[in-house]
C-alpha cells in the first residue's frame, strides 16, 4: 500500500510528465531526444551509455511516429531479457 509520503511525489512526477507532453514543449523535446539518441549510439564512451538510446527514442516518439516504431522492438527485447534473467536468477515462477 502506498504511504502518504509517496503519493505527492507520484502525482508530482505524473504532472511533470503530462506537462512535458504539451505542444509548447515540442521545441525542447526534439533536441533533447535527438541528443539522448545520439549519445546512446556512442554508449561505449565514458559518461554516456546505451541506456540513452531508448530514452531518447521514447522522448522523440511523442512528436515523431518513426521513433515510436523504432522503440517497439527495443521494448520487446527488453521485456524478453527481463523475463529471462528473472527466471534465471529467481528460478521459475510459481503459481502464487
Q: How does this structure look, described?
A:
By secondary structure, this protein is mainly alpha-helical. It has one domain. The protein has 4 helices and no strands. Helix 2 packs antiparallel against helix 3 and helix 3 packs antiparallel against helix 4. The longest helix is centred in the C-terminal third of the chain and has 26 residues. The two termini are 19 Å apart. The model has no long low-confidence stretch (mean pLDDT 81).
Architecture blueprint of SSEs:
Blueprint: H1 6-20, H2 26-41, H3 52-60, H4 65-90
Number of helices: 4
Strand content: under 5%
Low-confidence stretches: none
Q: Tell me the domain tally.
A: 1
What's this, in brief?
The protein is an all-alpha fold. It is 69% helix and 0% strand. The mean pLDDT is 81.
Task: Name the descriptors.
single chain; 96 residues; mainly alpha; 4 helices; globular
Amino acid at each position: 500500500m502506498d504511504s502518504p509520503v509517496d503519493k505527492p511525489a507520484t502525482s508530482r512526477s505524473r504532472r511533470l510528465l503530462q506537462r512535458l507532453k504539451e505542444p509548447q514543449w515540442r521545441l525542447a523535446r526534439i533536441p533533447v531526444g535527438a541528443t539522448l539518441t545520439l549519445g546512446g549510439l556512442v554508449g561505449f564512451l565514458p559518461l554516456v551509455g546505451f541506456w540513452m538510446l531508448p530514452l531518447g527514442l521514447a522522448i522523440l516518439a511523442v512528436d515523431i511516429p518513426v521513433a515510436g516504431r523504432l522503440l517497439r522492438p527495443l521494448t520487446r527485447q527488453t521485456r524478453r531479457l527481463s523475463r529471462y534473467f528473472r527466471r534465471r536468477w529467481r528460478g521459475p515462477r510459481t503459481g502464487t
